[in-house]
Amino acid sequence: MAGSPGPEEDTPSLPDLSDSSQRESLPDYSAQGRDVSAPYARPDETGRSRARVIVITVIVCAVVLIAVIALILSQTVFKQMTGDDSHTPTAAASRSSSGEGEYVPDPKDPDLAPPPPIFTQKPTTDCSIPDGSSGDVSSSGRTVRGGHLEYTRPDGWTYPWSDQALPYMTNVNGYGRLVENNWYSVVNVGSVEWPESEGKYPGDEKAAIAIFQCYATTAGVLAEFGENPTVTDYRSEETTVDGHDAWIVQATYHFEDPSQLQDTSASIVTAIVVDTDDGPQAVASDVAADVPEHAEALDQIIKSLKVV
User: Fold this and answer.
1) Distance between CA atoms of 166 and 5, rounded to whole angstroms?
2) What is the pTM assigned to this prediction?
3) C-alpha–C-alpha distance, residues 288 and 45, integer Å
4) How far is residue 60's CA from residue 58's CA, in Å, rounded to a whole number?
5) Among 213, 147, 174, which residue's Cα sits nearest to residue 297?
6) Ramachandran angles phi, psi of 199, nearest 5°
7) Which of 257, 259, 254, 264 is nearest to 230 (CA)?
8) What does the pLDDT look like over 47-88, one tens digit per residue?
9) Beta bridge partners of 244
């Protein structure tokens, strides 16, 4: 029968750590014994600073990378999705053999496009001058009348300018203001007379274009304008004069040789044809564009036009 071991039996026991000789014989598992840093030791201030720098650097790099990617997408994929073609050639632009877009001026931009063909130095009509003059032309006080059209003469316009006939105009009367030497700003009014040899009267638009072209190329003005003057501020459009339908053609001609005159190097050429019960009436003029008093007077004259 089994029983408890007696005191004489050999039983295992734990080492007696009170004995210093036994403690020295045990293996040393402490951090000092391994000669390495403790795995969970608290980092010092230098370590914490280094960690913060690394974290901040990573964040900044990530933000920059995201911004670069967003910029690339906005200029490529997103622009295509939104249909933004502001930097692509227009449909009207032709292509050269090298594949690059050829520049095509916008005809609606007067600062970039060449003037329309009607502003040519060569008239598109015969510039016929009517034979003789019918009716009376007169000026009374500040009123200047030619045909069935009249205007109020501004201050300084003191030089009578009576041409009995201009291309497609008769009963012509006008006044001028001296610019310098023998060069004047002049505004003429009179009746439109269209010759049978050129067919029936073409209407106010074509008549205004013809009168404009012929006036701009007469020997008197061409001598100063030159053969190839620059043309700016041009227009050809409907208007009204004293409640009557009309058409105005106007442009600024910059002299080919700006040194021809001292006080001016450009002239505003204007032609207006007005439909009236007494037939078409017209204005034909050229006024110094860069002399403010003359250019402002032209506006005043046009505003004062009356059908009589």
Assistant:
1) 153
2) 0.63
3) 84
4) 6
5) 174
6) 90, -170
7) 254
8) 667 777 787 888 888 888 888 888 887 776 655 565 554 443
9) 241
